[in-house]
């Protein structure tokens, strides 16, 4: 398979424009969220190299990817989902080794993430990660945290999201969720699979850890 030069650059442009529009809209007072968005924008404006040796990989939860892409309705988000569709055969879907032997077996059949831009993405970037989280239609992603700053935008599917030990809150397509350094979070789906765009900045090398190990 030939490296998708054109498609990955279109993806990068779409993400860059999306984050620029975020910066211009509602990110007024949340200091770390603002600096996160600025870091994503400035990193994407750099000249990022192609990761020619990048290999695709699928996971069981990828059975939900096509329906999540086709269910993305909102115009801005649809643009992003269409470029994901054009890249889908090249994506390296991963599981987090820190969860092995801790989370239930069912979790690993119903969760995966992919880094599209980042240290090991299709486009190489050392400062940030941009990628996708895919959740099956009935899964609990138990409490976990990480030092990296994280910003999610739901592309498709409604689900419940929790911060620390607060109540789970319904998040729908277009909703955005920010996790500051080490803020504990959990998600659960109930009937719909979820596709979400994520970005990481700060300490991006270390994967999330389950709360039970903190
Ligand atoms: Fe996270």
Strand and helix map with partners:
Elements: H1 5-25, H2 31-45, E1 49-50, H3 65-70, H4 75-87, E2 93-94, H5 105-109, E3 111-118, E4 123-124, E5 128-135, E6 140-145, E7 149-156, E8 159-163, E9 169-171, E10 176-179, E11 185-188, E12 194-201, E13 209-210
Query: Main sheet?
Result: 8 strands, mixed
Q: Look at the structure and give the CATH class.
A: Mainly Beta
CATH level-four homologous superfamily name:
Jelly Rolls
How many domains is the backbone divided into? 1
Q: What is the H/E order?
A: HHEHHEHEEEEEEEEEEE
Please tell me the CATH architecture by its name: Sandwich
What share of residues is helical? Answer: 25-40%
Q: Hey, roughly how much beta strand do the residues contain?
A: 25-35%
Question: Cofactors and ligands present?
Answer: fe (ii) ion
Compute the CA-based radius of gyration.
16 Å
Number of strands: 13
Average residue pLDDT:
95
Descriptive terms for the model:
214 residues; Jelly Rolls; eight-stranded mixed beta sheet; 5 helices; five-stranded antiparallel beta sheet; binds fe (ii) ion
Describe the protein in words.
This protein has 214 residues and is α+β, with helices and mostly antiparallel strands. It has a single domain, classed as Jelly Rolls, CATH 2.60.120.10. It is 28% helix and 29% strand. It is built from 5 helices and 13 strands. The protein has helices at 5-25, 31-45, 65-70, 75-87, 105-109; strands at 49-50, 93-94, 111-118, 123-124, 128-135, 140-145, 149-156, 159-163, 169-171, 176-179, 185-188, 194-201, 209-210. The strands form 2 sheets. Strands 1, 2, 3, 4, 5, 7, 10 and 12 form an 8-stranded mixed sheet that branches. α1 (5-25) packs antiparallel against α2. The chain is globular. The relative contact order is 0.19. The mean pLDDT is 95. Fe (ii) ion is lined by residues 146, 150, 179, 185, 208.
């Amino acid at each position: 398979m030939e490296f998708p030069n054109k498609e990955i650059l279109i993806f990068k442009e779409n993400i860059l424009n999306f984050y620029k529009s975020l910066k211009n809209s509602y990110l007024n007072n949340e200091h770390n969220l603002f600096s996160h968005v600025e870091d994503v924008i400035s990193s994407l404006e750099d000249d990022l190299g192609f990761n020619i040796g990048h290999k695709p990989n699928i996971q069981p939860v990828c059975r939900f990817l096509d329906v999540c892409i086709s269910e993305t309705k909102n115009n801005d988000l649809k643009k992003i989902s269409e470029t994901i569709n054009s890249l889908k055969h090249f994506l390296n879907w991963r599981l987090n080794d820190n969860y092995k032997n801790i989370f239930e077996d069912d979790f690993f059949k119903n969760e995966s993430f992919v880094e599209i831009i980042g240290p090991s993405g299709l486009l190489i970037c050392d400062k940030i990660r941009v990628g996708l989280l895919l959740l099956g239609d009935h899964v609990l992603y138990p409490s976990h945290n990480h030092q990296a700053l994280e910003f999610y935008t739901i592309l498709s599917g409604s689900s419940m999201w929790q911060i620390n030990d607060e109540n789970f809150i319904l998040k729908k397509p277009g909703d955005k969720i920010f996790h500051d350094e080490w803020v504990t979070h959990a998600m659960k789906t109930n009937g719909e699979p979820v596709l979400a765009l994520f970005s990481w900045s700060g300490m991006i090398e270390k994967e999330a850890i389950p709360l039970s190990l903190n």
